[in-house]
Design brief:
Blueprint (H helix, E strand, L loop, with lengths): L9 H19 L9 H5 L8 H4 L5 E4 L5 H14 L5 E4 L6 H4 L9 E6 L8 E6 L5 H13 L3 E4 L9 H17 L5 H16 L4 H7 L4 H16 L10 H14 L4 H25 L3
Parallel strand pairs: 1-2, 2-3, 4-5
Antiparallel strand pairs: 3-4
Helix pairs in contact: 9-10
Subcellular location: Cytoplasm
Protein name: Lambda-crystallin homolog
EC number: 1.1.1.45
Protein backbone atom coordinates (compact mmCIF):
# COMPACT_ATOMS: atom_id res chain seq x y z
CA UNK A 1 0.00 0.00 0.00
CA UNK A 2 3.03 2.28 -0.12
CA UNK A 3 3.51 5.00 -2.70
CA UNK A 4 5.96 4.43 -5.51
CA UNK A 5 8.09 7.04 -7.28
CA UNK A 6 10.86 6.80 -9.85
CA UNK A 7 14.19 5.85 -8.31
CA UNK A 8 16.73 8.60 -8.15
CA UNK A 9 14.29 11.43 -8.84
CA UNK A 10 14.13 14.55 -6.75
CA UNK A 11 10.44 13.88 -6.15
CA UNK A 12 11.17 10.52 -4.55
CA UNK A 13 14.01 11.90 -2.45
CA UNK A 14 11.91 14.85 -1.28
CA UNK A 15 8.94 12.61 -0.46
CA UNK A 16 11.14 10.20 1.46
CA UNK A 17 12.57 13.06 3.51
CA UNK A 18 9.08 14.29 4.31
CA UNK A 19 7.98 10.78 5.25
CA UNK A 20 10.99 10.35 7.51
CA UNK A 21 10.32 13.68 9.25
CA UNK A 22 6.61 12.94 9.76
CA UNK A 23 7.12 9.35 10.92
CA UNK A 24 9.80 10.42 13.41
CA UNK A 25 7.52 13.17 14.74
CA UNK A 26 4.66 10.69 15.13
CA UNK A 27 6.94 8.24 16.90
CA UNK A 28 8.18 10.91 19.31
CA UNK A 29 4.60 11.94 20.14
CA UNK A 30 3.52 8.32 20.64
CA UNK A 31 1.07 8.60 17.74
CA UNK A 32 2.69 6.19 15.28
CA UNK A 33 0.26 3.58 13.98
CA UNK A 34 1.11 -0.09 13.72
CA UNK A 35 3.67 -2.24 15.52
CA UNK A 36 6.72 -1.23 13.46
CA UNK A 37 9.11 1.60 14.36
CA UNK A 38 9.48 4.65 12.14
CA UNK A 39 12.74 3.28 10.70
CA UNK A 40 11.15 -0.09 10.02
CA UNK A 41 8.26 1.57 8.20
CA UNK A 42 10.64 3.74 6.19
CA UNK A 43 12.57 0.66 5.11
CA UNK A 44 9.41 -0.61 3.41
CA UNK A 45 9.05 2.48 1.20
CA UNK A 46 10.78 2.21 -2.17
CA UNK A 47 10.68 3.86 -5.57
CA UNK A 48 9.99 2.13 -8.86
CA UNK A 49 9.59 3.31 -12.47
CA UNK A 50 7.93 0.11 -13.75
CA UNK A 51 4.26 -0.33 -12.86
CA UNK A 52 4.34 -4.13 -13.18
CA UNK A 53 7.31 -4.32 -10.83
CA UNK A 54 5.67 -1.83 -8.45
CA UNK A 55 2.53 -3.94 -7.93
CA UNK A 56 4.15 -7.37 -7.98
CA UNK A 57 2.79 -9.46 -5.10
CA UNK A 58 0.26 -6.80 -4.07
CA UNK A 59 -3.05 -7.71 -2.44
CA UNK A 60 -4.42 -4.13 -2.47
CA UNK A 61 -3.40 -1.32 -4.85
CA UNK A 62 -4.30 2.22 -3.77
CA UNK A 63 -4.08 4.72 -6.63
CA UNK A 64 -3.21 8.27 -5.48
CA UNK A 65 -2.45 10.21 -8.70
CA UNK A 66 -3.92 13.73 -9.23
CA UNK A 67 -7.69 14.16 -9.60
CA UNK A 68 -7.79 13.76 -13.38
CA UNK A 69 -10.22 11.24 -14.88
CA UNK A 70 -8.17 10.51 -17.99
CA UNK A 71 -4.98 9.99 -15.99
CA UNK A 72 -6.69 7.72 -13.48
CA UNK A 73 -8.38 5.69 -16.23
CA UNK A 74 -5.00 5.27 -17.92
CA UNK A 75 -3.46 3.94 -14.68
CA UNK A 76 -6.31 1.51 -14.06
CA UNK A 77 -6.24 0.29 -17.67
CA UNK A 78 -2.55 -0.57 -17.17
CA UNK A 79 -3.26 -2.28 -13.85
CA UNK A 80 -6.18 -4.18 -15.37
CA UNK A 81 -3.78 -5.86 -17.81
CA UNK A 82 -1.34 -6.83 -15.05
CA UNK A 83 -3.30 -8.03 -12.02
CA UNK A 84 -4.98 -11.38 -11.42
CA UNK A 85 -8.41 -12.03 -9.93
CA UNK A 86 -7.27 -11.64 -6.31
CA UNK A 87 -6.05 -8.03 -6.18
CA UNK A 88 -8.29 -5.14 -5.07
CA UNK A 89 -7.93 -2.08 -7.31
CA UNK A 90 -8.78 1.02 -5.27
CA UNK A 91 -8.85 4.74 -6.03
CA UNK A 92 -8.38 7.66 -3.64
CA UNK A 93 -10.57 9.93 -5.78
CA UNK A 94 -12.67 12.42 -3.83
CA UNK A 95 -15.37 13.00 -6.45
CA UNK A 96 -14.99 10.90 -9.61
CA UNK A 97 -17.81 8.38 -10.02
CA UNK A 98 -16.72 4.73 -9.96
CA UNK A 99 -18.95 3.99 -12.96
CA UNK A 100 -16.81 6.40 -15.02
CA UNK A 101 -13.50 5.61 -13.38
CA UNK A 102 -13.64 1.84 -13.83
CA UNK A 103 -15.71 1.63 -17.01
CA UNK A 104 -14.69 -1.17 -19.36
CA UNK A 105 -12.21 -2.88 -17.03
CA UNK A 106 -12.00 -6.67 -17.07
CA UNK A 107 -11.45 -6.75 -13.30
CA UNK A 108 -14.27 -4.31 -12.51
CA UNK A 109 -15.60 -6.60 -9.75
CA UNK A 110 -12.34 -5.96 -7.89
CA UNK A 111 -12.56 -2.17 -8.24
CA UNK A 112 -13.64 0.25 -5.52
CA UNK A 113 -13.15 3.85 -4.42
CA UNK A 114 -11.52 4.18 -0.98
CA UNK A 115 -11.62 7.94 -0.44
CA UNK A 116 -9.51 9.12 2.54
CA UNK A 117 -9.91 12.50 4.22
CA UNK A 118 -7.10 15.05 4.32
CA UNK A 119 -4.89 14.73 6.32
CA UNK A 120 -5.57 10.97 6.35
CA UNK A 121 -3.12 10.06 9.12
CA UNK A 122 -5.06 12.13 11.65
CA UNK A 123 -8.57 12.01 10.14
CA UNK A 124 -9.28 8.29 9.86
CA UNK A 125 -12.49 8.28 7.79
CA UNK A 126 -12.40 6.39 4.49
CA UNK A 127 -15.45 6.35 2.19
CA UNK A 128 -15.82 3.03 0.38
CA UNK A 129 -17.81 3.58 -2.81
CA UNK A 130 -18.57 0.66 -5.14
CA UNK A 131 -18.93 0.48 -8.90
CA UNK A 132 -22.37 -0.99 -9.75
CA UNK A 133 -20.54 -4.25 -10.56
CA UNK A 134 -18.17 -4.28 -7.58
CA UNK A 135 -18.31 -7.65 -5.84
CA UNK A 136 -19.50 -7.66 -2.20
CA UNK A 137 -16.28 -9.49 -1.32
CA UNK A 138 -14.25 -6.52 -2.62
CA UNK A 139 -16.13 -4.17 -0.30
CA UNK A 140 -15.71 -6.58 2.62
CA UNK A 141 -11.96 -7.06 2.04
CA UNK A 142 -11.32 -3.33 1.72
CA UNK A 143 -13.39 -2.55 4.81
CA UNK A 144 -11.47 -5.14 6.83
CA UNK A 145 -8.10 -3.83 5.60
CA UNK A 146 -8.93 -0.23 6.44
CA UNK A 147 -10.02 -1.25 9.94
CA UNK A 148 -6.81 -3.26 10.39
CA UNK A 149 -4.58 -0.27 9.57
CA UNK A 150 -6.44 2.03 11.97
CA UNK A 151 -8.82 3.87 9.62
CA UNK A 152 -12.60 4.29 10.02
CA UNK A 153 -14.21 2.94 6.84
CA UNK A 154 -17.84 3.61 5.95
CA UNK A 155 -19.80 1.71 3.33
CA UNK A 156 -21.48 3.96 0.77
CA UNK A 157 -24.16 1.57 -0.46
CA UNK A 158 -24.35 3.01 -3.98
CA UNK A 159 -22.44 5.61 -5.93
CA UNK A 160 -23.59 9.23 -5.83
CA UNK A 161 -21.90 12.40 -7.04
CA UNK A 162 -19.75 13.84 -4.24
CA UNK A 163 -20.09 10.65 -2.17
CA UNK A 164 -21.20 11.41 1.42
CA UNK A 165 -18.54 13.58 3.07
CA UNK A 166 -18.36 16.17 0.30
CA UNK A 167 -22.13 16.33 -0.06
CA UNK A 168 -22.37 17.20 3.64
CA UNK A 169 -19.40 19.56 3.40
CA UNK A 170 -20.83 21.35 0.35
CA UNK A 171 -24.21 21.75 2.07
CA UNK A 172 -22.47 23.46 5.01
CA UNK A 173 -20.38 25.65 2.68
CA UNK A 174 -23.50 26.62 0.73
CA UNK A 175 -25.41 27.86 3.79
CA UNK A 176 -22.26 29.43 5.27
CA UNK A 177 -21.85 31.39 2.03
CA UNK A 178 -25.45 32.64 2.12
CA UNK A 179 -25.17 33.75 5.74
CA UNK A 180 -22.01 35.75 5.01
CA UNK A 181 -23.30 37.12 1.71
CA UNK A 182 -26.57 38.27 3.30
CA UNK A 183 -24.72 40.07 6.10
CA UNK A 184 -26.04 37.78 8.84
CA UNK A 185 -22.58 37.01 10.27
CA UNK A 186 -18.94 37.83 9.55
CA UNK A 187 -16.68 35.18 7.97
CA UNK A 188 -14.63 34.75 11.15
CA UNK A 189 -17.68 34.44 13.38
CA UNK A 190 -19.16 31.95 10.92
CA UNK A 191 -16.10 29.74 11.34
CA UNK A 192 -16.37 30.15 15.13
CA UNK A 193 -19.93 28.79 15.02
CA UNK A 194 -18.49 25.60 13.59
CA UNK A 195 -15.17 25.31 15.48
CA UNK A 196 -16.57 26.22 18.91
CA UNK A 197 -20.13 25.03 18.32
CA UNK A 198 -21.22 22.31 15.93
CA UNK A 199 -17.68 21.05 15.43
CA UNK A 200 -17.31 20.37 19.15
CA UNK A 201 -20.28 18.01 19.01
CA UNK A 202 -19.47 16.46 15.67
CA UNK A 203 -15.93 15.54 16.69
CA UNK A 204 -17.48 12.70 18.71
CA UNK A 205 -21.06 12.14 17.51
CA UNK A 206 -22.83 12.80 14.23
CA UNK A 207 -25.95 14.85 13.47
CA UNK A 208 -28.38 11.94 13.84
CA UNK A 209 -27.07 10.87 17.25
CA UNK A 210 -27.04 14.55 18.26
CA UNK A 211 -30.77 14.64 17.51
CA UNK A 212 -31.25 11.42 19.50
CA UNK A 213 -29.45 12.81 22.58
CA UNK A 214 -30.94 16.33 22.45
CA UNK A 215 -34.38 15.02 23.35
CA UNK A 216 -35.82 11.88 24.89
CA UNK A 217 -34.67 9.90 21.89
CA UNK A 218 -34.90 10.37 18.11
CA UNK A 219 -38.69 10.12 17.87
CA UNK A 220 -39.07 12.72 20.61
CA UNK A 221 -36.70 15.08 18.79
CA UNK A 222 -38.62 14.78 15.52
CA UNK A 223 -41.94 15.32 17.26
CA UNK A 224 -40.57 18.37 19.04
CA UNK A 225 -38.49 20.05 16.33
CA UNK A 226 -39.49 18.83 12.87
CA UNK A 227 -41.93 21.71 12.32
CA UNK A 228 -39.27 24.29 13.15
CA UNK A 229 -36.65 22.57 11.03
CA UNK A 230 -39.04 22.47 8.10
CA UNK A 231 -39.82 26.19 8.48
CA UNK A 232 -36.13 27.19 8.60
CA UNK A 233 -35.11 24.89 5.73
CA UNK A 234 -37.68 26.54 3.47
CA UNK A 235 -35.78 29.85 3.87
CA UNK A 236 -32.46 28.46 2.57
CA UNK A 237 -33.01 29.52 -1.03
CA UNK A 238 -31.14 28.43 -4.18
CA UNK A 239 -27.53 27.33 -4.48
CA UNK A 240 -25.27 30.41 -4.15
CA UNK A 241 -23.54 31.66 -7.27
CA UNK A 242 -20.34 32.37 -5.30
CA UNK A 243 -20.18 35.99 -6.39
CA UNK A 244 -16.85 37.78 -6.70
CA UNK A 245 -17.87 40.34 -4.09
CA UNK A 246 -18.38 37.68 -1.43
CA UNK A 247 -15.22 35.86 -2.51
CA UNK A 248 -13.26 39.06 -1.87
CA UNK A 249 -15.03 39.61 1.46
CA UNK A 250 -14.18 36.14 2.72
CA UNK A 251 -10.66 36.32 1.27
CA UNK A 252 -9.93 39.52 3.18
CA UNK A 253 -11.17 37.98 6.44
CA UNK A 254 -9.15 34.79 5.95
CA UNK A 255 -6.06 36.74 4.87
CA UNK A 256 -6.21 38.86 8.03
CA UNK A 257 -6.36 35.68 10.11
CA UNK A 258 -3.81 33.65 8.12
CA UNK A 259 -1.84 35.47 5.38
CA UNK A 260 -1.78 33.33 2.24
CA UNK A 261 1.97 33.29 1.69
CA UNK A 262 3.61 29.83 1.82
CA UNK A 263 5.20 30.36 5.23
CA UNK A 264 2.04 31.37 7.08
CA UNK A 265 -0.06 28.70 5.38
CA UNK A 266 2.46 25.96 6.19
CA UNK A 267 2.63 27.06 9.83
CA UNK A 268 -1.16 27.09 10.14
CA UNK A 269 -1.43 23.65 8.52
CA UNK A 270 1.14 22.33 10.98
CA UNK A 271 -0.88 23.79 13.85
CA UNK A 272 -4.03 22.17 12.40
CA UNK A 273 -2.29 18.81 12.12
CA UNK A 274 -0.98 19.07 15.68
CA UNK A 275 -4.53 19.75 16.90
CA UNK A 276 -5.90 16.83 14.90
CA UNK A 277 -3.18 14.54 16.25
CA UNK A 278 -4.12 15.44 19.83
CA UNK A 279 -7.81 15.05 19.08
CA UNK A 280 -7.19 11.63 17.49
CA UNK A 281 -5.32 10.51 20.61
CA UNK A 282 -8.14 11.79 22.83
CA UNK A 283 -10.79 10.00 20.76
CA UNK A 284 -8.84 6.73 20.90
CA UNK A 285 -8.71 7.03 24.71
CA UNK A 286 -12.37 7.91 25.16
CA UNK A 287 -14.17 5.79 22.62
CA UNK A 288 -14.66 2.04 23.07
CA UNK A 289 -12.94 0.01 20.38
Amino acid sequence: MGRNWSKGTKLYDHSLLLSRKELKMLEQSDSLKGSLSAEQQLSLISGCSNIAEAVEGAMHIQECVPENLDLKKKIFAQLDRIVDDRVVLSSSTSCLMPSKLFAGLVHVKQCIVAHPVNPPYYVPLVELVPHPETAPATMDRTHALMKKIGQSPVRVLKEIDGFVLNRLQFAIISEAWRLVEDGVVTPCDLDLVMSDGLGMRYAFIGPLETMHLNAEGFLSYCDRYSEGMNRVLKTFGPIPEFSRATIEKVHQAMHMKVPDDPGHLAARRQWRDDCLMRLAKLKSQLQPQ
